[in-house]
């Protein structure tokens, strides 16, 4: 589904991504772990076609990220650090706006359904500017999936969420997985990674330092490997 070969990204004479080789199959839920500055967000931005790679090849469902970037972009649902929402719009207005950008059919119904799914129906007509970080993140999750993407790119999605919102987010990821959606999720939350992901990738200095399968029982394996690779504990 996603094939990444010898991917590099240079900015200001600094090599941020130093040769990433990665192959991801459809329906996989992959957590990307690693210290601050490792290049995790940069990797997601390259995939979301927000920034161009310096060299290397990315193929998504056989399409070339460079040549077919308009088609490829539609396949991705990207949740960055910042919510991308319009402050003075309500959740419904935001979702209808972004849904229209993607040409979503019956957009208002879809938006109402998503507001309900993320547990904010009570606030559907209030401007987003009054919302807490967790509430904004809930709408941002809905925004990222309004066009039913084939791949979700989530950048630290659990940050600032309360327990209810974490459950909603995890359920979104798992129900999208059931529909065949692939997820790449940058996170520092090992517990959530072990709960919803089936594979862990550790990124260090712009390279993949480890790549292994996990299940919900292997939380200790994740922290052990991370400590050895990133924190130098042996
Ligand atoms: N546009 C840019 N220009 C120069 N340096 C950048 C740019 N974007 C990111 N960087 C640098 O690249 C490194 C990796 O950044 P990032 O991908 O955001 O790391 P992570 O998400 O793993 O914390 C950091 O050292 C950051 O300062
Ligand atoms: Mg980051």
UniProtKB/TrEMBL annotation:
UniProt entry tagged with the keyword Protease: no
Key words of the record: ATP-binding, Nucleotide-binding, Transport
Cited Gene3D superfamilies: P-loop containing nucleotide triphosphate hydrolases
Keyword ATP-binding: yes
GO molecular function terms noted in the UniProt entry: ATP binding
Domain of life assignment: Bacteria
Positions of the ABC transporter domain: 2-230
SUPFAM superfamilies named in the record: P-loop containing nucleoside triphosphate hydrolases
Similarity-based family: Belongs to the ABC transporter superfamily.
Protein name, per record: ABC transporter ATP-binding protein
Naturally occurring in which organism (per UniProt): Neobacillus driksii
């Amino acid at each position: 589904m996603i094939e990444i070969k010898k991917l590099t990204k240079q900015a200001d004479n600094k090599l941020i991504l130093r040769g990433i080789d990665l192959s991801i199959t459809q329906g996989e839920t992959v957590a990307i772990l690693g210290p601050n500055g490792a290049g995790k967000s940069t990797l997601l931005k390259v995939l979301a076609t927000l920034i161009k790679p310096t060299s290397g090849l990315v193929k998504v469902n056989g399409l070339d990220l460079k040549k077919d970037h308009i088609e490829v972009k539609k396949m991705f649902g990207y949740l960055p650090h910042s919510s991308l929402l319009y402050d003075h719009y309500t959740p419904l207005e935001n979702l209808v706006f972004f849904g229209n950008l993607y040409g979503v059919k019956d957009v208002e119904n879809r938006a109402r359904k998503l507001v309900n799914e993320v547990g904010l129906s009570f606030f559907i007509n209030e401007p987003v500017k009054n919302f807490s970080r967790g509430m904004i993140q809930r709408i941002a999750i809905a925004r990222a999936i309004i066009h039913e993407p084939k791949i979700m790119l989530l950048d630290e999605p659990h940050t600032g969420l309360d327990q209810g919102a974490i459950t909603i987010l995890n359920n979104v990821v798992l129900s999208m997985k059931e529909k065949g959606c692939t997820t790449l999720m940058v996170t520092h939350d090992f517990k959530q990674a072990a709960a919803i992901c089936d594979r862990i990738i550790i990124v260090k200095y712009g390279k993949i330092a480890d790549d292994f399968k996990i299940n919900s029982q292997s939380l200790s394996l994740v922290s052990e490997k991370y400590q050895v690779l990133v924190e130098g504990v042996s």
